[in-house]
Every structure is written in structure tokens, then in C-alpha cells.
Specification:
InterPro entries: 6-hairpin_glycosidase_sf, 6hp_glycosidase-like_sf, GDE_N_bis, MGH1-like_GH. The chain is α+β, with helices and mostly antiparallel strands. The longest helix has 22 residues, at 456-477. It is globular. The two termini are 42 Å apart.
């Protein structure tokens, strides 16, 4: 059973222990959060001065949880004289119904106490504890406790109210109650969190979906999204469970952006409940064949916030697509550069790739024409600011050495890019997958220019540049004696020679020379990289390998979904199927919800995939992974006004049927069977 329990609605979420209690933490974001601020840091229930213990937790729905509790140590449960039910939900605000049940044959008096505090910590302060610069005041009223934080114009507020009369003090609420024999007592607690704007208004109340909503409305909204998705019928229970969980989590991760008031998908709970360039784009690519209408808001938001100036603090440059957008105190006072922050080198080419893929699925030529200036600006960035050394490659080096990101590729932790011996190169760095993305972006942009912008000369130029990049890339990145592509080039043009999962992204982009593809595949599925559960981020014999290191040996589901897509692209259908099969097998051990990452231990060493200790769950691009794997297994590929369906279902998976796949063709159905299923009576 999980030690922590989470509920969420949009980017408001609450993380508690299994009793439902919240205690202040600077290690992990426990508490009630919204728009990067913690509005509750303490929420601890006692009965007659005793902490409670969980009998059972019902957390089947994303936005509500029910805790069944008893006082005393677990050995005393059998003769417990009372029990407690905490039924809570996030429905815009946070609501908790607290019920105490008397199980004796006599009237009993109880003292119920809830200790309450709000530290208004910024999410970045959870990771790096710092002294608050503002001032918190606490106001006590009848059946209400109000906590207010102010720092100049930055103003946040938490109000806790109760439906039952109680004694309110500056640290909580106390209820002295008498319950008849076999009776019960209930109070409804409501926690309202307010994000004030510059004019003193509650910003969220001005949004289309702002303010509190009923549980029924949230349930109906989530169900409506799930009902729009294609219907899956299959013989493989892990696939069915992962697909259902993915749709549920995608519905739960949608939130309203303050900037434009549109619905976006948050990148992941608890650290990334906001818009991320790279994560949001890859998630959009994963969900596109299933729920294409979720994609345009992300494209438009990224286009609207495209860089237009040189700003060293934010790593902003003209044409660059953002990395991360935050709303908290540290961003507001420029203690962090995330308002927005542009420190990723891959979000810009990925933006072009997504727009083209979206048009290929939907036929939405209007959006492609509307965003022609933004695509041209992104391509210009790739060739100018992105090419820091003027070598024709995409490089990165932060302009902000104090608070900017060192690594600006998807493996963005400090030690993720290294030579085989574990040493790390200097900056700038040109990682291999960035070149693949740039290649793919130019090929796709050429199609857009020729088909929609009436600029064949520009299309021809882009295709020439892409062909030249592919040729030079093969020359400069291929390690001849080891027969794989280098992780990166350093500033001197030397190969950063570690063997990593990044080479799978090269297959997806199409930059790999056909003559090299077989060797790349051998490495991806060889024992150094392939754990048996998936492809590791770093080969197990490399200097920095650590099976529980964030980007240096763990297995990332999203990474594996992109690799499977790349294997499919180069015709390695059985190998793609193997990754699909092992990812889905792993999902069984996470109740259908693939986490951000899990340990890279070999499968014969552990009987199950080992959890990574601080992985986000749900995380958007892990949530999208089963969807992309399903696309790969069924061989779904748009071609003109038609959808090509060319299934290659892994052995043992049986029948896989996907009905009502949406796109420019209307809706079509796809059916695939594994070969062993075809050999059975009635197979075919």
C-alpha cells in the first residue's frame, strides 16, 4: 500500500499520509497546493488526543478519497470503541466531511481536534528551503479560521470553515461532542484557497471553469472525455487496465491556465503541475490519435509565449519555445526564472514536429497557416541562437549560471550527460537527439511550406539543410569501433561516448542512416541497455550508471514509447512489440499507472519493477505511454485522407481492437491479433 495518498483536480492537488493527515515537509510536497503555492501545510486529526490509524483507504477516483480510521495502535482495532471516516474531495476548493461513530452501548463524549497551518511555501521552496520574505497573519472568527500571506503585491489566502460549532483558535479547531450509543457526529470542513491578482481579485474565479465545482460536475466532465476516446477491446488485461487508467489520469491532469484561460494538461504530480514545453509536446504526440481536440490549446499556448527577445535570466531568445511556466512567489519575485523559463533546447524543434503531426491527423490547415510566422521563427532559432558554435548543430548552454538549467535536453539533471568513463564534458553541449529533432523539424516544416504556405523554394532549402545535417551527423556522431551514435559532442567536437537510450530517439526522428539502424537496435535491446522491463537511460557498464539514478540508469516509460515508435519507423516491428509488451507487463505492478521512472535493475534480479523513490505519478508523458504503444502495435499512420493500419501485435497478447479512431478520415476501426492468436481456432 502506498505511504502517501493524492487527490487532484486540475493543478490543485492534495498529498497526505494514509491517515489523511498532512504534516509540514520540506522533503516532499505534502499539503494542499494550487498554482505552485502550498495553502495547507498542516492538517492533523486527533480523537481524545490520540492519532488515528488507517483501516482502509478508498482512492479509486482521482479527485476524492475516503479514509476509514480507528484510534489507538493497530493491535487494538478489534475492540475499538469508535471509528472515524474522513471523506474528502478537491472540487475547485478542498472539502472534507468528518464523521465520528460511537460503537458502544452508552453515550460517549469525545474531543475532536484538527491542527491547521499554512506556510504558503512556493513549490521551489519545498526543494530548497528558504526563509519566507512575506508575513502571515491568522484571523479567528465564528466557525472560521483565516490565514493570509502578503509580500508586497503577492497575496494568498486560506480560509477554513466548519458546519458544526466548535472552538476555533489560531492553530486549529476543537470540537467537544457527545454521541449517543451507536450514533454518529458529522461536520463538513471547507478549505478555500485564493490566488489574488494585481487588482485584488481571485484570479481563478475569472476563468471559465473557475471557482468551486460539484463532484458530479467533475465526474461528468472526466467521463465525457473518456467517452470521446476510441473504445478498446482486447484479450490482454494489462493493456486494458493501462488504457483505462491513462484516460482517467489524462482527464484528471487537465487544468486551466491563468495566462489564457484554456484547458491544458499538467505535466505531473506533484512537482510539475503546470505547462512544460517538452513534456506537454510529447504528451500531445502520444494522445493525438485518441483525443486530438486536447492538442490545439497546448500548441496555441506555446506559440503565444514564444520567445521574442534576448533575456539572459530566463534563457529566452527570439523564436525559442518555453520550457516551464510557473505562478508561485519565487517566479513572481524573479528568484527563479520560470515566468516563463526557456531553458530547453528541444522544445523548439518538437513544437514544429507536433504542429505537423497534428495537421496530418486532423487536416486542420487553418492552424498551420495561422502559425506560419511562429514556425519560421522557430526554424530561425534552430539555425542561429541554437547553433551556438556555428557548426550546423543544435547546442545548449545556459545564459543564467545562477538559477538556469545546466542540461537543457530531456535528461536535464546535472550528471545526465557524461563520457563512458563518467567524466562530464564542458559547455556548450550538442546531444544526439537534439540533432534528430532538428532534422525531423526541417523535413516536416518543408511539407508545411510546400503544401500550405505556397513557398516551394523555402521547402527545398529546408530539405537540403536536413539532408546535409543527416550526412554530417552520421560522420561526426557515429562511433565506428563501438557501432553506436555518441550521446553528444563536446565544445571541441569530440564524441561524448556513453551508450544511452537517446539513440532510440534518433530512430524516431529518422536521422539514422538505414545501414546503421540494425546496430542501433542491437544496442537498444542488448543486455547493457535493456533491463527486461524496458530500455535503461544509461548502459549498465558506463561510469555513471546507477539503477536508481534519475537519468543514469532508470527506465522511463515515455522514453521507451518514443523508442518503440522509432523501432516501428525503421521496420523493426518485433523489437517494437517487445518494448510494448514489457512496458505493459511493468504497468501491472503499478496498478496500471506507469510512473515517471522505475529502477533499471535487470528483470532476472527482481521479480517486479522496483519503484523510483520520488517519481511523479501520475505524470503526463507516462500516462500517454500506453496510448503511443497501442498506436505502434496497431501500426497506425496517417497518409493523406486515410489512416494506414498495419498491426503487429506481440505474441501472447491476443486480440487488440480499437474502435472509432478519430481523424481527418472521420472515424475508423483497427483490429490486430498476435500470431499465436491467429493460430488458434477462429483466429485470423
Amino acid at each position: 500500500m502506498k505511504e502517501l495518498v493524492s487527490i487532484l483536480d486540475g493543478n490543485a492537488f492534495l498529498v497526505s499520509d494514509r491517515r489523511g493527515d498532512i504534516e509540514p515537509s520540506y522533503d516532499f510536497p505534502t499539503g494542499l497546493f494550487s498554482f505552485d503555492t502550498r495553502f495547507l501545510s498542516k492538517w492533523v486529526l486527533t480523537l481524545d488526543g490520540q492519532r488515528l490509524h488507517a483501516l482502509s483507504v478508498d482512492d479509486t477516483q482521482s479527485y476524492r478519497t475516503k479514509f476509514f480510521l480507528a484510534p489507538g495502535e493497530p493491535t487494538h482495532y478489534l475492540d475499538a470503541k469508535a471509528s472515524v471516516i474522513r471523506s474528502r474531495a478537491i472540487v475547485g476548493s478542498f472539502a472534507e466531511e468528518l464523521t465520528v461513530l460511537n460503537h458502544t452501548e452508552a453515550d460517549v463524549e469525545f474531543t475532536v481536534r484538527i491542527d491547521i497551518a499554512a506556510d504558503f511555501a512556493d513549490l521551489f521552496e519545498i526543494k530548497h528551503r528558504r526563509q519566507k520574505q512575506g508575513r502571515t497573519t491568522v484571523t479567528v472568527a465564528e466557525n472560521e479560521l483565516r490565514l493570509t500571506y502578503r509580500r508586497e503585491a503577492f497575496h494568498r489566502e486560506t480560509t477554513v470553515s466548519t458546519s458544526a460549532p466548535g472552538q476555533v483558535d489560531t492553530t486549529g479547531m476543537t470540537f467537544r461532542i457527545r454521541i449517543a450509543r451507536n450514533g454518529r457526529w458529522t461536520t463538513r470542513l471547507r478549505v478555500s484557497s485564493v490566488v489574488f491578482g494585481a487588482r485584488g481579485e481571485d484570479i481563478r474565479a475569472t476563468l471559465p471553469y473557475g471557482g468551486s465545482r460539484s463532484a458530479d460536475a467533475i465526474r461528468a466532465e472526466q467521463q465525457e472525455l473518456i467517452d470521446r476516446a476510441p473504445k478498446l477491446g482486447c484479450d490482454c488485461q494489462p493493456l486494458a487496465g493501462a488504457y483505462r487508467r491513462s484516460l482517467n489520469d489524462l482527464a484528471a491532469l487537465r487544468y486551466e491556465s491563468i495566462a489564457l484561460g484554456v484547458r491544458l494538461i499538467a505535466a505531473g504530480l506533484p512537482w510539475f503541475m503546470t505547462l512544460f514545453g517538452r513534456d506537454s509536446i510529447i504528451t500531445s504526440l502520444q494522445v493525438l490519435p485518441f483525443l486530438p481536440e486536447l492538442v490545439p490549446p497546448t500548441i496555441l499556448m506555446l506559440a503565444g509565449l514564444q520567445g521574442h527577445r534576448v533575456d539572459d535570466f530566463r534563457d529566452e531568445e527570439p523564436g525559442k519555445i518555453l520550457h516551464e511556466l510557473r505562478y508561485g512567489e519565487t517566479a513572481g519575485f524573479e528568484e527563479q526564472p520560470h515566468s516563463p523559463y526557456y531553458g530547453s533546447a528541444d522544445s523548439t524543434p518538437l513544437f514544429i514536429i507536433l504542429l505537423d503531426e497534428y495537421e496530418r491527423w486532423t487536416g486542420d490547415a487553418t492552424l498551420v497557416r495561422k502559425l506560419e510566422p511562429q514556425v519560421r521563427a522557430a526554424l530561425q532559432w534552430i539555425d542561429t541562437y541554437g547553433d551556438l558554435l556555428g557548426t550546423g548543430y543544435l547546442w545548449y548552454q545556459t545564459r543564467n549560471p545562477e538559477t538556469g538549467l545546466q542540461n537543457q535536453c530531456w535528461k536535464d539533471s546535472w550528471d545526465a550527460i557524461s563520457y563512458a568513463d563518467g567524466e562530464m564534458p564542458g559547455f556548450p553541449r550538442a546531444t544526439c537527439e537534439l540533432q534528430g529533432y532538428a532534422y525531423d523539424a526541417k523535413i516536416r516544416a518543408a511539407r508545411l511550406a510546400r503544401t500550405f504556405w505556397n513557398d516551394p523554394a523555402y521547402a527545398d532549402r529546408l530539405e537540403r539543410e536536413a539532408a546535409d545535417l543527416k550526412r554530417r551527423f552520421d560522420r561526426d556522431f557515429w562511433i565506428a569501433d563501438r557501432e553506436y551514435y555518441a550521446l553528444a559532442l563536446d565544445a571541441d567536437g569530440r564524441q561524448v561516448d556513453a551508450l544511452t537510450s537517446n539513440i532510440g530517439h534518433l530512430l524516431w526522428s529518422g536521422i539514422v542512416d538505414e545501414s546503421r539502424a540494425g546496430k542501433v537496435v542491437e544496442h537498444l535491446l542488448g543486455p547493457r541497455l535493456f533491463s527486461g522491463w524496458g530500455v535503461r537511460t544509461l548502459a549498465e557498464d558506463e561510469g555513471r550508471y546507477n539503477p536508481i539514478g534519475y537519468h543514469v540508469g532508470t527506465v522511463w516509460p515515455f522514453d521507451n514509447s518514443i523508442i518503440a515508435w522509432g523501432l516501428w519507423r525503421y521496420g523493426f516491428r518485433n523489437e517494437a512489440g517487445l518494448i510494448c509488451d514489457t512496458m505493459l507487463a511493468a504497468s501491472r505492478y503499478f496498478e496500471g499507472r506507469l510512473p515517471e521512472a522505475f529502477a533499471g535493475y535487470a528483470r532476472d534480479l527482481t521479480d517486479y519493477p522496483v519503484e523510483y523513490p520520488t517519481a511523479c505519478s501520475p505524470q503526463a508523458w507516462s500516462t500517454g505511454t500506453p496510448l503511443l504503444l497501442l498506436r505502434v502495435m496497431l501500426g497506425l499512420e496517417p497518409q493523406g485522407e486515410h489512416l494506414i493500419i498495419d498491426p503487429a501485435v506481440p505474441p501472447g497478447m491476443g486480440r487488440v481492437e480499437l474502435l472509432d479512431i478519430p481523424g481527418r478520415w472521420g472515424k475508423v476501426d483497427a483490429l490486430g491479433r498476435s500470431r499465436d492468436a491467429e493460430d488458434q481456432p477462429g483466429g485470423g
